[in-house]
Amino acid sequence: MNTPPPCPQCQSSYTYHDGVLYNCPECGHAWSAEISGTAQDPDEKIVRDANGTVLNDGDTVTVIKDLKIKGSSDVVKVGTKVKNIRLVDGDHDIDCKIPGIGPMGLKSEFVKKVVD
């Protein structure tokens, strides 16, 4: 029988597999089975889109809701495709250039990854 890997956050051995995710009952951390097999730095932040898909630098994403731009009357419309994103630390964890608007920071919870 396969034993699940220890939790990458708290190193608990009481983890369990629930469909597509591994879960830790001690700290509540959940992670994808596809990344559990790779060696990762525990301090590295994993950025996920609104559907839970892992995002990487250079990915293409689509905006899933109209986003008002502070200090402007412009709006980033739902369905706007943003190419070649860059992941950064902070509240707005995606740096990108939006067509027709320019450079901007987005929150990953308002985008979904475009699968080629």
From TrEMBL:
Domain (Protein YjdM N-terminal) ranges: 5-32
Cross-referenced SUPFAM superfamilies: Prokaryotic SH3-related domain, Zinc beta-ribbon
Limits of the Protein YjdM C-terminal domain: 47-114
Pfam families associated with the record: YjdM, Zn_Ribbon_YjdM
Membership in a protein family: Belongs to the YjdM family.
Protein name: Alkylphosphonate utilization protein
